[in-house]
């Protein structure tokens, strides 16, 4: 049986270069969120290392044997929360087999993994160039997992720009999309909030994002602004760029209310847009 509400915590963690310090800090914040009544806790993209292609291989671990899974599964068990952390995975960094990976932990059990499908390769001349594909390999499948609160789905950061993931999640009855992410000072103000509200309103589900806190001494300056959006596209919890935990009470009844009042999911004309992919260039 699924519960009708839960408390979500998105930990906008201050991340530094020492992995052990990051893990201890994350664990402390997870336990704090549990004391505040959180049932589901999300960590940012790269919670255990600075964000940047130069760091990925060094900080990557194999799954599930690595240090980070070990520390966090213990934290999930102690805190009795469903935990969604993001990190990098490797079997062999020398051969560039690193993936950007999100794992979902219930107590000590790994209940799902998601590998970032769309790698962050962009070039805005004079502003920002980033090539995750220099070091990462993309994942090749969608991730939907069952929770006590209904099905949820995952995208990692740049994945949020691709509306198809949230659209499929909604059609498969997910209640929430979770995007651990780390937008930056260029694309953050442009698109971070817009994308999550768009994903939410188009698909009438909850959307949660979780960024690292901003560090102006780092090589990549995260935008921050971890946020939770409801199925009508309204922001129900957010923050600025400093370290903070964003809490939101998720009332799942709202899904029904919004979906019944504006019943777009019943009104779609798949007879007209039968196969978007078939016409894609
Ligand atoms: N880590 C990422 O995928 C960053 C994505 C981003 O900043 C964007 O604008 O998209």
UniProtKB/TrEMBL annotation:
Keywords: Hydrolase. GO terms for biological process: asparagine metabolic process; glutamine metabolic process; oxaloacetate metabolic process. Signal peptide: none annotated. This is 432_t:CDS:1. CDD domains: nit. Belongs to the carbon-nitrogen hydrolase superfamily. NIT1/NIT2 family. Residues 6-252 form the CN hydrolase domain. GO terms for molecular function: omega-amidase activity. GO terms for cellular component: mitochondrion. It holds the Pfam family CN_hydrolase.
């Amino acid at each position: 049986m699924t519960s009708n509400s839960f408390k979500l915590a998105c930990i906008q963690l201050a991340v530094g270069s020492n992995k052990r310090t990051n893990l201890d800090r994350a664990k402390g914040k997870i336990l704090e969120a549990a004391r505040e009544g959180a049932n589901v806790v999300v960590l940012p993209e790269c919670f255990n290392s600075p964000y940047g292609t130069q760091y990925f291989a060094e900080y990557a671990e194999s799954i599930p044997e690595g240090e980070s899974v070990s520390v966090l599964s213990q934290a999930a068990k102690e805190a009795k929360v469903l935990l969604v952390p993001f990190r990098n995975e490797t079997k062999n960094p020398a051969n560039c087999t690193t993936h950007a990976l999100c794992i979902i932990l219930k107590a000590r059990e790994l209940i799902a993994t998601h590998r970032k499908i769309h790698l962050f390769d962009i070039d805005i001349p004079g502003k920002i160039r980033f090539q995750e594909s220099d070091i990462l390999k993309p994942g090749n499948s969608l991730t939907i997992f069952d929770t006590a609160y209904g099905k949820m789905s995952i995208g990692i950061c740049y994945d949020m720009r691709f509306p198809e993931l949230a659209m499929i999640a909604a059609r498969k009855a997910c209640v929430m999309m979770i995007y651990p992410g780390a937008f930056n000072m260029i694309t953050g103000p442009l698109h971070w909030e817009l994308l999550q509200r768009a994903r939410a309103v188009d698909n009438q589900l909850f959307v949660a994002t979780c960024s690292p806190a901003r560090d102006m001494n780092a090589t990549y300056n995260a935008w921050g602004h971890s946020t939770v959006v409801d199925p009508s596209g309204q922001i129900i919890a957010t923050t600025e760029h400093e370290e903070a935990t964003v809490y939101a009470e998720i009332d799942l009844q709202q899904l029904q209310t919004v979906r019944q009042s504006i019943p777009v999911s019943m009104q779609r004309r798949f007879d007209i847009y039968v196969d978007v992919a078939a016409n894609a260039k």
